[in-house]
Amino acid sequence: MKNGTESFVSSFHWPFAGSFGFNTDILATNPINLSVVLGVLIFFGKGVLSDLLDNRKLRILNTIRNSEELQGGAIERLEKARARLRKVEMEADQFRVNGYSEIEREKWNLINSTSKTLEQLENYKNETIHFEQQRAINQVRQRVFQQALQGALGTLNSCLNKELHLRTISANIGMFGALKEITD
Fold this sequence. Notes:
Layout (H helix, E strand, L loop, with lengths): L3 H8 L14 H69 L1 H64 L2 H22 L1
């Protein structure tokens, strides 16, 4: 038994509309169609895509600068914490007899809280960078898809005239009717 494509091609006669015809050689048509679509995408989309990427790059760089400023603030706090630590250590020498263990515990708490703050800031910076990169990638994908779809629709609209469109619809209706009779 023939498959649906073979019966569709062989059971209908496709009259030519001027110089228009169907090329059923899939190896000859697909590379041409792909090269046309890719050429249109590259020609019309490279400016928009480069602008979009430049804007995204600037946003990411601004985010990195902001993160570095936050890191600079954390480093200042770390320096203040280190100065405080030095002060605590001097006091520890004075009060060694009365409470060396308490001072030591405060020192470690201070170091731990400062290192946790630095880790949190570093994680925030990395998450922000990752988030901005993902958002940029998603926007680029969406923009490329929209441009490809617009290009394909434009190509289809420019290639199909009213008469050809009506013949295609009639042929498809006839094919579905024939398939329905076969399945019944």
